[in-house]
Task: structure prediction
Amino acid sequence: MAVFKSYDELYSYMGRLYDEAKCDSRIGPKIKASNLVIQFRYDDPHAVVTINAAKPPTQPGALFDVLWGDNTGLKPDIEMSMKSDVAHQFWQGKVNLMAAIARRQIVTKGSLPKILKLLPAVEPMYEMYPRILRELGRTDLIIN
Result:
């Protein structure tokens, strides 16, 4: 059974995660410095989120833009596709990226070295996501 019952449920938790990340002083500058367009493609339920660090952000306080939907008009430099359940585990720090890529739980397009270089930048999100789940009353989704 999938963790998220619908796109709206996935968006309510992960949308907040990305919204916090784009303004976070530990994450934002590193992502911004990459100058990359990074796209996450989730299935079950389907969702596409694109991080645009290639251009200045449009939202005050943000260090990069986060766009949801299939038609952003952006060509990603890096694309990572996975089931939403894998993303849920990944953002809690429970998925080894290289092992998941080797097992094809995460399918990548683009430069693997660039993907690996971004990994330290997103590590604060591993603490952020469970906190968000707690704040939204979804402690049942936290993986110990």
Observations:
- The chain has a mean pLDDT of 96.
- Residues 7-136 form a domain with the Nonspecific Lipid-transfer Protein; Chain A fold (CATH 3.30.1050.10).
